[in-house]
Amino acid sequence: DSGVTQTPKHLITATGQRVTLRCSPRSGDLSVYWYQQSLDQGLQFLIQYYNGEERAKGNILERFSAQQFPDLHSELNLSSLELGDSALYFCASSVKTSGVTGELFFGEGSRLTVL
Amino acid sequence: GENVEQHPSTLSVQEGDSAVIKCTYSDSASNYFPWYKQELGKRPQLIIDIRSNVGEKKDQRIAVTLNKTAKHFSLHITETQPEDSAVYFCAASKPGSQGNLIFGKGTKLSVKP
Predict the structure, then answer these.
(1) pLDDT tens across A40-86, in order?
(2) Which residues of B touch A104 (CB under 8 A)?
(3) CA–CA separation, A108 vs A106, rounded Å?
(4) Which residue from A minimizes the CA distance to B87?
């Protein structure tokens, strides 16, 4: 158990819909990262938050947005869903502040299926 | 931005043999290179990492080597066991990137008993 909690574990929805994925980081971790894992595409970095503020953006579509709340949990919002958005979405957390990069602790992922 | 290429995409070895997975990165400023193991249906987990001030690091049957000049790093697993079967991801990160990792596309390792 990494200490990172993601909900829901599985989600099936239709094209055009909107979903919200939730992540609670490990106790004490200030950074939250979102990654998308599609078949044969590895882990694509989407976005990072640190203590409530957006710190880095990767290949995140404009239809996707995220935020980190004062209690440090984070939500990833996916809207106008397309078939190609079907993937496993991982949240990860780390202790990292502005110093040396360290280990990312991943949650179990949220599997999104868009029909 | 940073790009990480990983080879091979699949690797099959006999139990007891060694396995080597190689990665190259594009940004010479990258200075942190972790390896993650993802078992089927599970989350990725860090197995070993190396920083740019070190050329090699070992942890029991696992070792990682780094060649900064060539911008590549490799994972070596010796005396492979069936439980080593998984997908392995290399990654790179550079200072100022806020810790986010750029991953390779993964290598599916199968260890046959």
Answers:
(1) 678 999 999 989 999 889 889 999 999 999 999 999 999 999 999 99
(2) 34, 46, 99, 101
(3) 7
(4) A42
